[in-house]
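Two proteins were folded this term; both appear here.
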Amino acid sequence: MQSALSILLMVGLVAFFRQGAAIMAGEWSARMYFAVVNNDAAGLAQMIADGGDVDQFYDDVTNVSSRSLLHVCCGRGHVQCLSSPRYLSLTPSIHPSPPHPPVYSGVTPALVCASTGDLETLRPLLQHNCCLTTKGSVYKRRRRLEYSLDPFELAYSEGFLHLCRLMVDAGYCVYGLRDSFLGDFHRQTSNPGEQTTHTNAHQDPIVIPIPAPASSGQNMANAEMPTLTFGHAQKLPDDWLDILLWLISKASNVRSLKEEAVFAVRAIIGHRLPDCIDSLPLPKLVKDYVMLKNLRLDDASAQHHGLFGKPK
């Protein structure tokens, strides 16, 4: 009889302590959530230092794409919280590939940034090696259609060309998109079958051949292929033509050896890039290149030389 009572007592104590731990975990989770919502970077950094779990998932009614603290951060544009020490390094949802679990419906934090056009929020994600190739579900209320797009495709279709340029500078490959870029250039500027010369911000003449329209047979063959276009974008930046020409150039030419080396190192390291780079015996300049420290947020009138080009 006493042994049975002892067992019941032990079970009760274990349940009590588990319930207490769950309550404490819930309080920590709520405190971290409200720190992100209120953009309290100092409070978030302190909770992370005290052992707070950044891999928390929430239902944020004000942001339907929110699934994790990082989604909440990106949806609200709270750059200060993103800059909290080690926050991005500890967040699995920034790089949703094995061994990390996939995010809900493919909606990565980078896709959230692409939907809002937020350059400042996207930049630290890119520097921490976020995934740019995961396609997520995007619902367009105006057209009542659901698309599966990656962050670059979404930003381009919405006309956020500065985000597109930033993603290409961070390693997004556009080799297969040349015809889409040329198609937009043709629809906006010239007649088919011509060559047009455009002078960019540096007064360098760029000759762009505009392809003639495809035959009806080719059009039918390509009818089922999705076309990347910003034709439905509500607003384009003032320097959209310069950016489009830059994208055409990137899609038409191979990357430099230095770029390929940097992007290869980043691809091999994958998640937790800053911690790995800090531990390597490399010169600071090389570490800065790999961490994309030169990745700049170009404003609408800024001259752009690319990640490894001349300084502005």
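Next, the second protein.
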Amino acid sequence: MRGGAEDGSILVYHTGPSGKSPGEMRRVSLSQLLQHPSPRWRPVAGNSNFLGVYRWNILKDAN
């Protein structure tokens, strides 16, 4: 994973559907997720609920 909990990395993720709710987008810091009380929300390699990190191409430098 690029960066670390100390660098202020911000993540945007979709919670996925739950019941009749379609889910929602959330914005959190990496350190918040790494310290989440429920292990299923932690973005670590051993978590089968975590599918990876993707950087939006729109954020890439144009050069």
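The two ends are 24 Å apart (CA to CA). Helices lie at 30-34. These notes refer to the second protein only.
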